[in-house]
Design a protein that fits this description.
Length: 174
């Protein structure tokens, strides 16, 4: 491998998680912010109907829209700042479960041909699978974990981590 390749992969490993966290934070803050203004979000109607179903119609549309906007903005701010990351990731998971729900609640609006050809709203929803995976990756770093670009160093770090977990598991089982 070239020195340039090593430097690039090291930079990616060093900065990728933070860039992922920040970029998802921007998306959530942006999309959440526009939900405060009725008619601006292209998914507003489907989102409100989904929340109605999930909450058994207990809240007004205005309350649901403001709550969803606030939830998404809080997730965005949490990801952008990196503060309270555990609770932010729990809120993210909660929000994404709701965001994916229309696939099951309103499949005829999410797909032109179920389950092969998504509508524009379906494409909007399906991309959330990537955000769920990103949330899982971010969750793996909340205790200070890092990505390691060098495969030899990564393998050694994995062995050390496995030994530590084995030791902890033995201590808790006795």
């Amino acid at each position: 491998m070239s020195k340039t390749d090593n430097k690039i992969t090291h930079w990616m490993a060093e900065n990728g998680v933070a860039l992922l966290r920040i970029s998802i934070g921007v998306i959530f803050l942006w999309f959440g912010f526009i939900k405060y203004f009725p008619g601006l979000s292209p998914i507003e109607d489907l989102a409100l109907r989904t929340v109605r179903v999930l909450t058994f119609n207990l809240f007004s549309d205005g309350t649901m829209a403001a709550s969803l906007a606030t939830l998404e903005c809080l997730i965005g701010i949490g990801l952008l700042t990196g503060k309270f990351l555990r609770i932010t990731l729990i809120l993210l998971l909660f929000q994404l479960i709701g965001a994916i729900s229309p696939v099951f609640i309103f499949p005829n609006e999410v797909f032109k041909i179920i389950p092969i050809v998504p509508t524009l709203a379906g494409q909007y929803i399906i991309k959330d699978i990537v955000i769920i995976s990103a949330g899982i990756l971010l969750g793996g770093t909340v205790r200070g974990g890092k990505m390691i670009a060098d495969p030899v160093v990564a393998e050694k770090a994995k062995q050390v981590e496995d030994e530590k977990l084995d030791k902890e598991n033995k201590q808790t089982s006795t």
